[in-house]
Amino acid sequence: MKLIPSLVAALGVALLVPFSALAAQPFPDPAVDASLSAGKGSETAVLAGGCFWGVEAVFDHLKGVKSVVAGFSGGGKSTAHYETVSTGRTGHAESVRITYDPSRITYGQLLKIFFSVAHDPTELNRQGPDEGTQYRSAIFYVSPEQKKVAEAYIQQLDQAHVFRHPIVTQVVPFQAFYAAEEYHQHFVERNPTYPYVVYNDLPKLGHLKKQYPDLYRR
User: Which of 1, 51, 85, 188 is catalytic?
Assistant: First the structure.
């Protein structure tokens, strides 16, 4: 997620293209999904889709989401530090932990935003200008139901050829989540003019607002 200004400028046009604009078909709702809960509550989703700044920002602006924390998942506690994770040798992926109200938004709807807005699920071990296993696409499921919904949705999108390339998102069991350093939390909100944010993350928020106005929250 570190770019020198000249490189940002060179890549700017490509990075401004929304990921779903690369899709060959309109983005469908998940055919397999949990129903909205009858009462308010809290459930958790843990997702990895490249630099956690932009992924966190997208879900921060989603109705039904209570909180989002940027952090690391997939590796051990002792290596859950940004500089160490950045080596790409810890097993961690930059991730977000999403706490949401299942009476207002379903897990499948979260995944629809994850695939269509938050990142490009067809890029292997990279996301835009960021390369390494720490930027991989992954769904860390916390229940058998989440696994079922995630695997079914990936199969649905691939079979419908929604993207021009196969989805490479991993669906793996959740083990642990470790919050990142404080300066990473809500980075986009606090640094809206930072070059990386301008070219990589703000376009995602614009796409979310334009394509999903009923789900967008200021």
Answer: 51
